[in-house]
Design brief:
Length: about 300
C-alpha cells in the first residue's frame, strides 16, 4: 500500500516532533559526580515551599573541626584533588572598563558552561581558587568545571559598584564570546551579591545568564525590575541561620517575595541551621545547584 506524499510528510513531521524533545534531553548537560559522598548535605531537617526551601543540619564540630586538618585554614586531604592546578591560569584581561586580573580554570574556549565566583569585602581573586579553605569547596567547583568541559573564573574587581560591575560584565562578554552557547552562572559571596544584582539589571549581561547563586549574601528589591527577573533567570540562596551580617529572616523574606511577585519563578533556598556568615560558601552543594539550573535551560 502506498500513501499520498502529503500523508508521508505528515507522518515524518510527527515522528520528528516525538524524537526532537528526546534528543534535546539527551544533549542536556549534567555535571558528573566529584566527591559527592564527601560534599553531600549532612542531613535535611525540613523542607517547604514545594521543595524549594530546605533546612540543612549544620554543626561546627562536625563540619569544620572534624572536616579540617587546621580548622578554617586547611581541609583534610581527602576533600581535594590538586591536579586541577594544571589547568589553572592567572591572567589579565584588558577591557574598556579597566584591566581585570582573574584566575581561569578549565576550558578558556569552547566551554560548555562558565561559573564565575565574586568574592566579598576584603577578599580577592585568590579566595575563589584556594583549594584548602572553606572545606575544600572551591577545589570541588574547580574540578567540576575541569572534568565537565567547563570554565571557572575568579576575578578581582575595584569595588561593588558600577565600576566593578562593568569589569565583570566585560569579563563575561569576553569568555561568552569564546564559548558560544555556554551556560553562564554567577556566584556571589557576601557583599559580592551587590554585583550579582547589578549584573541582573544589565540588559547586555542578563540574556547570557543561566543562574545566580547568592551565598551568605544580600537582597535587593530592584531585582524585581531587572532584565534577569523578567527572563526568570534561576536564583539560589544559601544562608546561615546565625548570619549576623545579612540576617537570614530578611533573605528568606526576599526569597518568598520573588515567588509572590512571579508564581513558579525558579528559585531555591537552603538554610544552614546554626550556620554563620561563611557557612554557605563552605557547605553549598555546587553540583546539585548547577545541575538544577542546567535542567531548566531550554
Amino acid at each position: 500500500m502506498t500513501f499520498p506524499v502529503r500523508w508521508r510528510s505528515a507522518v515524518a513531521a510527527g515522528v520528528l516532533a516525538l524524537i526532537l524533545p528526546s534528543l534535546a534531553l539527551a544533549d542536556r548537560l549534567t555535571l558528573a559526580p566529584f566527591k559527592d559522598d564527601l560534599f553531600a548535605y549532612p542531613g535535611v531537617l525540613s523542607t517547604g515551599d514545594g521543595g524549594a526551601y530546605t533546612v540543612v543540619d549544620y554543626r561546627e564540630m562536625r563540619d569544620i573541626n572534624a572536616r579540617d586538618e587546621v580548622p578554617e585554614r586547611r581541609v583534610r586531604g581527602k576533600y581535594v584533588s590538586t591536579g586541577v592546578r594544571g589547568v589553572q591560569k592567572d591572567l589579565v584581561l584588558k577591557t574598556d572598563a579597566g584591566d581585570v586580573r582573574h584566575f581561569a580554570v578549565g576550558a578558556q574556549q569552547g566551554a560548555k558552561l562558565i561559573v564565575i565566583y565574586l568574592h566579598g569585602q576584603g577578599g580577592s581573586r585568590r579566595q575563589g581558587v584556594d583549594d584548602f579553605t572553606f572545606g575544600g569547596n572551591f577545589n570541588r567547583v574547580k574540578n567540576l568545571m575541569a572534568e565537565n568541559g567547563g570554565l571557572y573564573l575568579s576575578p578581582d574587581f575595584p569595588d561593588f559598584g558600577d565600576k566593578g560591575a562593568a569589569q565583570i560584565a566585560a569579563l563575561i562578554a569576553h569568555y561568552a564570546e569564546r564559548s558560544p552557547g555556554a551556560a553562564v552562572f554567577v556566584a556571589c559571596g557576601s557583599m559580592g551579591g551587590a554585583l550579582c544584582w547589578k549584573l541582573a539589571a544589565d540588559k547586555t549581561v542578563a540574556p547570557k545568564l543561566s543562574g545566580l547563586l547568592l551565598l551568605g549574601s544580600l537582597w535587593d528589591e530592584s531585582f524585581f525590575n531587572s532584565a534577569a527577573f523578567k527572563r526568570k533567570v534561576p536564583v539560589f540562596f544559601g544562608q546561615g541561620s546565625r548570619d549576623t551580617v545579612f540576617p537570614v529572616d530578611r533573605q528568606e523574606a526576599f526569597f518568598r517575595a520573588i515567588s509572590a511577585r512571579s508564581p513558579g519563578y525558579p528559585t531555591r533556598f537552603v538554610r544552614f541551621e546554626s550556620g554563620t556568615h561563611g557557612t554557605p560558601i563552605r557547605m553549598t552543594d555546587w553540583r546539585g545547584v548547577l545541575n538544577w539550573m542546567l535542567s531548566l535551560r531550554h
